[in-house]
């Protein structure tokens, strides 16, 4: 397609049709929502109604509005399955925007206020932002908290240098700090729980016993051959898969054949993982349908 | 039927609009929901181990329940969270709730209100259960809790200083709990509770992980030595729900403990449809190859 074609105005018919679809969707959504709100409002304003019941109905009103909004947004996202359309784009943007806003507000109140603003200005924070804040007991405690808050503040400001046209290199230092500390913290835990403990488990699973106790209380141990079979198989799996990822030796002869067995085990693992993923996705879809059918439409 | 008409059918099936498949999948999932189908589940080893671990604890044991998920995984994890909470409360355990996920707070509050307070209205806040809420810091939160909980949580979610909460009296670190349960959708979650919570004190408390099916492969190696109980996806939830229902059937709203089994009905129908489509797709492809036309 040439540039001239790409910049050519869209046929008026297509544009007006899109506009009509959009208008239709918004009108239907507005109509259903207004009917639901009016029904709930008129019910809540009934003079014969007990005040406690009326208050409950008002709170139910907002629940109803929330359900309607959620249902319409769900349908808007589902509409992508038919084809890409403006309604889907609107719903997608609402989802992304609402999520980002929630994260930002949450980060402000759970991270910035208690961990940065409070140590720097405790009295101001307690008076204006966080009434339940416990003020530092002494000047020493205040300065200790302040020092712990100033370091991340400086590192955070250094990170923002990435946005400037010059001086982007300054942001590399806090990044290096973050990556270094994260690697240090995670490495030890991973070695303990994912390497040493797993090697120990794999070794001890090769010989498995069944223990039976007779009437006299004598314990008899017999070899559990099924358990031994599973243990040996798991050790073979581990060794063959590790061989496949061992690239220092050329995969020829015995090494090549072992690595090939490792590939089979890997494929079985990926297949099982994919199956589990499909199961998870179907569950999420069924939960959405349950919401539409039960909470929104009232079936069941 | 003539050979031509057969060829025509296969050719048409090969070119079928994928939206018909979407529609068929939607119907396969909706039908069991509308028919209220519940299949009998046979509890497997992991669900049984989860049930037995909670049963084995003496009544009054302290349980830390971390609901580490958000609404995007609610469909898969909420059923197991409901059953775990009801089970722990029915056994008389004291529950401390928290979450490592920012979006987890509303779900946590909803679950406490909808399950704990509906099924066990006699429980008192502060002595029978406590909500610590959300703390930012990912695995750092777990790591600090393994050595100093009051330093990590200075107050509970209501703003009460942690030292004034009766349930947490004497609980200095994670070893003050007999059981840690993490219902998790990913990072941070059950894996981090094993790596950073259970690491320094491996025998101080039991760990149970409830996970989405997607992250099952990451957690399976931890069972049963590093994680005494595990519930994998909706299947694990359905099996465990059944065990809990048989032992502790709630008097009101029993259907709230059946979500896992209801969703397993949709699973069965959807899987049958998928298998049928795979078989059909292969037949269409084989027929196309036999004709030497379609690839």
Description:
- The complex is a heterodimer of chains A (300) and B (295).
- With 300 residues, chain A is mostly helical.
- Chain A is 76% helix and 3% strand.
- Chain A is built from 9 helices and 2 strands; from the N terminus they run αααααααββαα.
- Chain A has a two-stranded antiparallel ribbon.
- In chain A, α3 (51-78) crosses α4.
- Chain A is extended, with a radius of gyration of 32 Å.
- The model of chain A has no long low-confidence stretch (mean pLDDT 85).
- In chain B, β5 (206-211), α9 (216-219) and β6 form a beta-alpha-beta unit.
- The two termini of chain B are 24 Å apart.
- Chain B has 295 residues and is an alpha/beta fold.
- Chain B has a 6-stranded parallel sheet, sandwiched between helices.
- The radius of gyration of chain B is 23 Å and the shape is elongated.
- At the A-B interface, α4, α7 and α9 of A face α2, α4, α6, α8 and α10 of B.
Numbering strands along the chain, what is their spatial order in the largest sheet of chain A? 1-2
Number of helices of chain A: 9
Separate helix tally of chain B: 11
Oligomeric nature of the chains: heterodimer
Number of E-state strands of chain B: 6
Q: How many distinct folded domains of chain B?
A: 1
For the largest beta-sheet of chain A, the strand count, sense and barrel status come to: 2 strands, antiparallel
H/E element order of chain B: HHHEHEHEHHEHEHEHH
Percentage beta strand of chain B: 5-15%
Structural class of chain B: alpha/beta
The main pleated sheet of chain B reads as: 6 strands, parallel
Distance from first to last alpha carbon of chain A: 54 Å
The overall pLDDT average of chain B reads 91
Percent helix range of chain B: 40-55%
Strand order of the largest sheet of chain B: 3-2-1-4-5-6
Uncertain segments of chain B: none
What gyration radius of chain A follows from the Cα positions, in whole Å? 32 Å
Question: Quick one: CATH class of chain B?
Answer: Alpha Beta
